[in-house]
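Worked example

This section walks through a single chain of length 464. The input is the sequence exactly as stored; nothing has been trimmed or padded.
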Amino acid sequence: MKKLALLFVVFCFFLKPHAQEVSPILFIYDASGSMWGKLEDRTKKEIAADVLAETVGNLPENQDVGLLAYGHRKKGDCDDIEYLVDLKNHSKAKIINGVKEINPLGKTPLARSATIAINSLKENKTKATIILITDGIESCDGDICDVVSKAKLEGIEFKLHIVGFGLKEGEKEQLKCAANAGNGSYHDAANASGLQEVLTEATSQTVDGPKGNFSIYATKNEQPVDAWVRAYKKGTKEEVDAGRTYRDTSFLYLPPGKYDLQIQPLENTRIKGTSLTVESIEGRMGHETVSFDGGKINIITLNNGEGWDCTSKIMTKSGEVVGGSRTYGRPKIIEVNAGVYDIELVALRIKGLHTTYKIEDVEVQSGKTVEAKHEFKSGIALISVSGGGALVDATVNIKDKNANKGVTGGRTYTSPNNNPKEFILNPGVYEVALKALTEGFRGKSETFTMEIKQGETFTKTINF
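Given that input, the structure is written out below as tokens.
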């Protein structure tokens, strides 16, 4: 038995742990003649080569990377497509040097390039993340969306991201269709920094990662809006996933549970970000269409059933203040972006420990009005001070007895307009301390306890 145990220990010592499989990334590179066009005083070829080199250089050491290029050898040849670096390549330098040596010449055979890339996966019985970078649309016969859709029906496993580099509106539909069919995303890049950003994101969303199970679509005035989406575990700052809509749909992977989503537009700076709480359910595809069209909150503040003047502060779930106003005792309608908010109300003139109230998780939907209502409670204390047949000026300090905390104070003065002194207080038990200031009574003091009841008036006269 001891020998068996020893053999087991020796076996475990020499057994190497199985490394987690990391599928290759294949870049399909646009070497068509239009890559000599300029952006920011540099050719798109130079920008793409530099950015791709930096992106590849930042990939993990165990990441295999391949490179396929089209249009780099002949003008007008739709079959000018070549694997420059094989998928099993471990060398980042091969990719970087290969891109720098490319001389853009030819056409843009997107469908044929995708076919060659996908067929190589099928032949090698492997899966991969494919990232296609193009500055133009299909210029040969073929439909890349159709190619990708049919490959998926065959069960070929891959994820396709497409980066449109300097493309115009109206040139992207087929590319978006292909990316969607390939379980990936379409990304726009207008300059070097934009290209770096989207390539970083694309290389992080690989075929090895869990498939998105929650989609987000953002709009303003019924038009799609490019926006960042970040998901946090509900009530925390722990980020679970993030993505970008690119005026289309962003897919996140959210394990079963509740999440706070922060959605921040990346265009039209007049649009403010918004937030909402969602739930991801096992085995179900979740979706939210986020409209940046305004919804309305009808804030109603009462005191003992009557309208009461209060201040309001509307905050996102992350604590950002997005609106607020005084109610002046009347319903107050405030327009904000659609989302989920907390509303902090502060009652004016009422004193005590319950003059602030937070209404949580008020959901505002675009084009709709939601009511946010709260009723405060109070009673009145009338405190009069006199002596020798005349009114006496005295300081008044009121403390909540149970909490042993001061809540308000004042002076009675010697005018009948202010003596008795009126205090509007939350219901409760209070300790009152008086100290006379009028000559002849200066220094005299008195204390007493009073109970304030909702809607009732407590009257007390102190005669020095």
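What to look for: Residues 25-204 form a domain with the Rossmann fold fold (CATH 3.40.50.410).
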